[in-house]
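Summary for the steering committee. The consortium agreed at its last meeting that each partner would contribute one worked example illustrating the joint modelling workflow. Our contribution is presented below. We chose a case with several input lines so that the handling of multiple components could be demonstrated. No manual editing was applied between input and output; the record is shown as generated.
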Amino acid sequence: MSVEPFNRLVKLAARAFYDDITTKGDNQPKTGRSDNRGIAVVVLDALTRRQWVREEDLAKDLKLHSKQLRRTLRFFEEEKLITRDHRKETAKGAKIYSAAVAATAEGQRNAKEGEEKIKLHTHSYCCLDYAQIYDVVRYRLHRLRKKLKDELENKNTVQEYICPNCGRRYNALDALRLVSPDDEYFHCENCNGELVAESDKLAAQEGGDGDDNARRRRREKLKDMLQKMEVQLKPLMDQLNRVKDLAVPEFGSLQAWEARASVAGRAVNGDSSSNDPSKSSQGLGYGRTPMTFIGETKVKFVLLIYDSASTSDCTVEVAFSGIEGKEEDVKSQTGSSGLKVLPPWMIKQGMNLTKEQRGEVKQESKMDGISAAEFSHEKKSTSDDVDNKSLQDEYVKAYYAALLKKQQELEEAAKNQELLQVSNSNAVPESVSNRQVGMKSKREEDEGEDDVEWEEAPTGGNSGESYKVNDLNVEAEASGEEEDDIDWEEG
Amino acid sequence: MFFHIVLERNMQLHPRYFGRNLRENLVSKLMKDVEGTCSGRHGFVVAITGIENIGKGLIRDGTGFVTFPVKYQCVVFRPFKGEILEAVVTMVNKMGFFAEAGPVQIFVSNHLIPDDMEFQSGDMPNYTTSDGSVKIQKDCEVRLKIIGTRVDATEIFCIGTIKDDFLGVINDPATA
Ligand SMILES: [Zn+2]
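What follows is the complete predicted structure of the assembly.
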């Protein structure tokens, strides 16, 4: 369930279709400062770096007026790219969200949580709907192609007519009602205006005389357009194909997402030992949110956290999709990276790309070197590319071993579930049903194990170095994701 | 396309027709009511070919009318998308031309007329090739292909094309 290919899809689609969308009202002049074309792309890009986000927060991050942002988001909602959720919020509700945000940022923003003063009114949240985006983009391409082809072949198309006065549309099946005894044109039923055949609009645009010559020219123009479309939208279509068989990232509804995120936050922060919800700061309201996780979801989810913990490292992404049990395949595939090199305009810092996608190796390795030095204070290990490469391989191997082991353990844990259920149900003071309590305690138990596993696993390879790699990820996340994120949005 | 099918209809008959000729009266009324009508479901009823069965009449309260359920065989004509028809041109204008195939009206828009035919206005508006060898005008017979139908409860309207192999004018009474 890797998000990255889907994010790339969103970014490509944004640039292909929403580049010059302006969300200004019709009454405002579209000139100078008020021209907000391009904002749609910025907003979509920002959303690829988030999951559920409160719209006010997003506006603040993007330095946009919230009204303007809302207008853009409403547009995307109509375009079926995002889902939104509105709710009247109490202070508690807001805290649940803050906790969830904190959790997705691995608890790094814990401190912020307290500051947030929330008034009691409606807040809106939004989130990309990847499954729908996939369908919407495909449908759009299909319609584009069909329209051009139909018009080009001029075959089996029901001619459409439009009234230039009132904009009313008709097609050839209405012909009987549209003929007039006075002249040889069709007339609007509404305003008696003379109807124009729709495909003639293209000819009219180029000042054609509407007869034979223009028809031929239109044909050529259409053919040209179709070809251009195939070429220019090729990256988008390629990405659609690439994404086709991947599991679509689902964040679920806002509530479900919050619940999951706060749980995960606990796991990452290692406070799973405390069973008392009131003790952990992220767990606010957690005890009141019904948990309905089953074993499978949980495995995936824990991995999701690992994924976000090391966004700039491709190897984790591999492991992530490899959970289905065919690690070997996926590894070799992404190892040689079937991904295309991104054009420079697509590459922004903080984007989470493989080196091959960036079309460079240098920068990454330099970064590795620096942070390695920073973290271990050992200059001697400031390494060249080869070193890093082998180091990474080592790390991947160790990670797979750990993953496999963990899966086995999870299975065992599942078997032991009933036992745990009995032993732990007393520890939770909430008045939730027995079954939910069982789920909860099981999950916490498992995550406890995971934590240990995660830290120990790389040590199996070669203790000193793999430790550095582990930290590298944290570093990359911290600098690459957080700061650059903001940079990019301000610019 | 033509079909020979069995349909059923409840006929109401005034008491004055009761008597020796009840059956004949019923059938002639059925023909008058049904032939030439169009239902979206079955198409145009061209002709009744036989009566299958006349059920028991039911006297309506208050009026004295009697309702007979009648099963009858008939020929129906229903156009389909993709079907090829021969039709007579009824009107030509700048937007295309209208034609009739029996009860069905068909419109052929100008972009479904071959590119080498141009519209000529005048007393007899027509579409003509540049060398003048082929001319489409009122009363011409054309062969066309149906590319779309609009089926209402009581009406069927078609649009067609003559922009394909073996389609177009097949006989022009004006030149014959
Ligand atoms: Zn009008």
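The CA atoms of residues 149 and 158 of chain B lie 4 Å apart. Chain B is about 5% helix and 55% strand.
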